[in-house]
């Protein structure tokens, strides 16, 4: 897979390092010449210049690119890069980094963004997901189709415990995609039984996510009480 990453800061470099370790072709854009040839990013192709300029993007061969990751610390730049990648080069998939949560609403298909990743929102979600057992926490918003990735940690004594996945009345447009149990990821089947402290991961529409949250909240009110 050929991936273009715009922005060689901490976020962009981390993504590039991971992709290189998986043998993907990586092209990195940045405006600072001093970033070229970083020892931890050997194997990457470097383009120095303003990625908001079409001429600079052409140097990176975006017309042959599978994914563009706009990972700068500037939301405006990330939006422009995503839009140009989609509208001018027809890149199949774009990922946009959201620095200011107030700008998250802009990162949608109108700006050519398939997946918006809000670092502050994700960090907050991971913290909440770790401490707020019993609440549905959104981790990512997938702008194409308006889907979301969310997580739910099953409280002990919740009525859903000991129920087979196929017997749970999941709301429409909600799909259970993974279960994390004792640190081990499980691909769920209908015969799997929900256990306390399971972390359930869902892909759903925003409406489905709201219905999922309501389902868990309503069920939680009927938890059995110990004497």
From TrEMBL:
Pfam families: TrkA_C (PF02080), TrkA_N (PF02254). The keyword Iron-sulfur does not apply. GO terms for cellular component: plasma membrane. The keyword Ion transport applies. Keywords: Ion transport, NAD, Potassium, Potassium transport, Transport. One of its GO terms (molecular function) is potassium ion transmembrane transporter activity. Residues 137-218 form the RCK C-terminal domain. It comes from the Bacteria. Residues 1-117 form the RCK N-terminal domain. PANTHER family: POTASSIUM CHANNEL PROTEIN 2-RELATED-RELATED, TRK SYSTEM POTASSIUM UPTAKE PROTEIN TRKA. This is Trk system potassium uptake protein TrkA.
């Amino acid at each position: 897979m050929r991936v273009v990453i715009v922005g060689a800061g901490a976020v962009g470099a981390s993504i590039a390092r991971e992709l290189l370790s998986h043998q993907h072709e990586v092209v990195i854009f940045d405006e600072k010449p001093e970033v070229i040839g970083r020892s931890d990013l050997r194997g990457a192709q470097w383009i120095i210049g303003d990625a908001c300029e079409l001429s600079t993007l052409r140097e990176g061969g975006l017309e042959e690119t599978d994914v563009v990751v706009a990972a700068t610390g500037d939301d405006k730049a990330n939006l422009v890069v995503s839009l140009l990648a989609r509208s001018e080069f027809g890149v199949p998939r774009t990922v946009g980094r959201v620095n200011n949560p107030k700008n998250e609403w802009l990162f949608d298909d109108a700006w050519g963004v398939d997946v918006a990743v809000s670092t502050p929102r994700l960090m907050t979600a991971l913290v909440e997901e770790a401490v707020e057992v019993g609440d549905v926490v959104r981790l990512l918003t997938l702008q194409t189709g308006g889907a979301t990735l969310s997580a739910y940690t099953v409280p002990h004594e919740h009525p859903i415990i000991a129920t087979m996945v196929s017997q749970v009345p999941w709301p429409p447009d909600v799909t259970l995609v993974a279960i994390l149990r004792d640190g081990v990821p499980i691909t769920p089947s209908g015969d799997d039984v929900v256990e306390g402290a399971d972390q359930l991961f869902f892909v759903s529409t925003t409406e489905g996510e709201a219905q999922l949250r309501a389902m868990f909240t309503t069920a939680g009110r009927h938890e059995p009480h110990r004497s």
